[in-house]
Amino acid sequence: MNIVKEPLSGGSALARDYIENFEKVSHLYGGDFRSKESRSIRAEWLDRSEGLRADRTQVAACLRQYNEKHNSHDAVMSSLALLEQPGTLVVTGGQQSGLFTGPLLVVYKAMTTIMAAKEAAEQLGRPVIPLFWIAGEDHDWDEVNHTYVLNRTQEITKIKIEKSEEKRSSVSNIRVEDESWQQVVEQLDALLQDSDFKPQIMEFIRSSSFRADSMTDAFAKLMGSLFGKFGLILLDSADPNLRKLEEPFFTSLIMQNDALETAYMNSASDIVNAGYELQADVTAGNANLFYIHEGVRLLLHKKDGVFADRKGQVSFTRDELLEEVKVHPELFSNNVLTRPLMQDYVLPVLATVLGQGEIAYWAIPHRAFEIIGGQMPLIIPRMSFTVVEGTLHKHMDKYQLSFEDVRQGLDRKRHEWLAAQDELGLNNVSKKLKLLSLPCTNH
Fold first, then answer.
1. H/E element holding 144?
2. How far is residue 402's CA from residue 386's CA, in Å, rounded to a whole number?
3. Range of 412's domain?
4. 114 in any annotated domain
5. What residue ranges of the chain have pLDDT lower than 50?
6. What percent of the chain has pLDDT over 90?
7. Contact in structure between 373 and 248 (CB atoms under 8 Å)
8. Other CB atoms closer than 10 Å to residue 85's CB: what's the count?
């Protein structure tokens, strides 16, 4: 495989400046991800603040139980053994659990996480392990229930899996029947072109979807098949056992909810005043927490000291909500703005791997980390790749085309090539004939 580094512009202006002009946006983030000094400073702070996080032995035990079920590679068990040891740090990446991994960016994010952890361990001279945070608590089924493949006639085809219920439940709690799995697996097998890699791909797919209760179960098994041998730990944010460990921090999020709201609003002002667009909604009265009522995930809002959803299906005073989280932590769930804080409570996060959209909205909770006594982790941009298959690469070589030529469009190259073929100078003759054929104008 030949890998050529090419800078590709894209994403929001804030994300581009984070990657290309960090000094311009440093006040909205933690340290510079390129700097070894920033990594050392972050590592030292994590050592000093060990007592502010969940007990790492209990976290490792919870993750071991989950990974033994879905991702039981020896390298993963070794990573979990390291996690139990004080001083071990974590590089995280994460995504919703999608059909057959979902878009390729999920695979690229896992790859970046593994490589970033290895690089950090070498730089810091201490254990740094990779972990993939599966956002199984998310409820947007329509976002994860499909994928696209290149079929045998070189066309893009959509594959979609059905669910058996219509509740707005977390994806990890939505049951997918065996018949639905069998249908989409057979559809994928029929669509994929034959290749040297297809048998192993289909083996991974069939193994991961066999008797999978949910999308998250299948996703975890497939990701484990691909990356478990590199020591990548998997975590499902909807894991009830994990929720028990998160209860103290949910309590803090409720106790300090007003201060956190102010922090989010002030951060939003910082971003807008710096000339950037917000990449996530920041609204007054949003508790930035979900409550799961009868299997349905409801966003909580605050008004006059009461926490309730928009339709009034549930309603709690602050004291009632604090009692509820103590008794039933499994009924609580983070939103996009409190998830970064929870991740930092559960794990000693040296850095987190994000795509450009995520980099932009992670600027919103940067003040919130201070409210809960934390510090924002480093953010590492996810690697991206454009795969050029063999036949196309041969055509590019034949016509001496670079990736940049193709990306910018081929008009200039086409004209250059045509001009090079004009050995008789016909193009100049054509121009002269056009001039001669112009009508005369009498003065």
1. helix 141-144
2. 13
3. 391-432
4. yes
5. none
6. 78
7. no
8. 12
